[in-house]
Every structure is written in structure tokens, then in C-alpha cells.
Design a protein that fits this description.
Blueprint (H helix, E strand, L loop, with lengths): L11 H10 L2 H26 L10 H5 E6 L2 E2 L5 E2 L2 E6 L14 H6 L4 E2 L6 H7 L2 E2 L8 H37 L1
Antiparallel strand pairs: 1-4, 2-3, 5-6
């Protein structure tokens, strides 16, 4: 005899109640998976928008954009937040030898004209007459977030619903067999 378990989560309160019933480790895993999938939406858009230099072996910046989940943090009001997903520039990614993390902010926000010369003082650069014209901003992270944040939320919600339904079905099956 087959028993069908149908779990529906209508609102946020129902979702919180169902998550509270799940074992802590499983609930946290479901949250992390959901957040990571949502962050993946923003990551993919950032990779699409990231500029690539037209040189051999270019694309370090694009390859370095990753999505990760992090552990317990505190939000702006000091309350503990269980999990957080971030899209960031990784230190090293695969065979990428050069760290894009060192220059990603220059690409995103641009640079002003500045002196280039021996030493770190502005006076020395001006004295030698070397000036960098600056670089135009080529934003990729902020536009990716702005365009995909609602899609990411829907992705997180959909994955969370699937994860909770699957875990509650497993929990119900264990209870029936015990």
C-alpha cells in the first residue's frame, strides 16, 4: 500500500514552523542549498557582465566570480543570522594564476587620473612626468544584483519549498517505519 505525503507551505510563518520541526542540521542544509542556488543566479549574471580584456589568457575576472555560503553572522541590528550567501571575487580560481581580487574594484568603480612613477609619493610621480589617464568604470557586480535580485529571491523560495517538502517526506517516512 502506497502512502502519499503532500506538504504545502503557503506563507512565511508556515515555512518557519515547518523548518523548526526539521532536525537542525537538515534545516540548515536546506537553507544553505537554497541560498547558494539564489546566489548562483546573481553570480551567472555578474559573469555575463564582467569585461574581458582582449589578450591571450584574459578573463581572469570573469572566472574568479563565485557564489559561496557562510556561517553564522550578525545583521545590521546585531541579531544573529544563521546563513548568508555571497557573490564575490575568489582569491584564486582553478588555473587562474593572477588574483582578480586585487583589481576587481578598479574595474567596477574606475580610477581617476593619477601619477605613476618610482616610489609611492604623488610628488615623485609628477616630477617624473608619468601620468595614468585613469580608467572608465565598467560596473558588473552591482548591475548583476540590481537586475537579478527578484529572480534570485524566487529561486531561493522555489528551492526552499522543494527542500522542505523532500525533507518532511523523509521525516514522515522514518516515523512510519519506526
Amino acid at each position: 500500500m502506497a502512502v502519499r505525503v503532500d506538504q504545502r507551505v503557503i506563507g512565511l510563518q508556515d515555512l518557519r514552523k515547518t523548518l523548526a520541526e526539521l532536525p537542525e542540521r537538515i534545516g540548515g542544509l536546506a537553507v544553505r542549498r537554497s541560498l547558494l542556488e539564489g546566489a548562483g543566479v546573481v553570480r551567472d549574471e555578474a559573469r555575463n557582465l564582467a569585461p574581458v580584456r582582449k589578450i591571450k589568457g584574459g578573463g581572469h575576472l570573469k572566472k574568479s566570480i563565485v557564489a559561496q555560503t557562510r556561517g553564522v553572522f550578525r545583521d545590521g541590528k546585531g541579531r544573529p543570522v544563521e546563513h548568508r550567501a555571497v557573490v564575490l571575487i575568489a582569491k584564486k580560481r582553478g588555473k587562474v594564476a593572477r588574483s582578480a581580487r586585487a583589481y576587481a574594484h578598479f574595474v567596477e568603480f574606475g580610477t581617476r587620473p593619477h601619477s605613476v612613477g618610482k616610489g609611492s609619493r604623488l610628488v615623485r610621480g609628477i616630477a617624473s612626468g608619468l601620468k595614468h589617464p585613469g580608467a572608465k568604470a565598467q560596473p558588473f557586480m552591482r548591475p548583476a544584483f540590481d537586475t537579478k535580485k527578484f529572480v534570485a529571491l524566487k529561486t531561493i523560495e522555489g528551492r526552499m519549498r522543494r527542500e522542505v517538502a523532500a525533507e518532511t517526506a523523509k521525516l514522515a517516512a522514518r516515523r512510519r517505519s519506526a
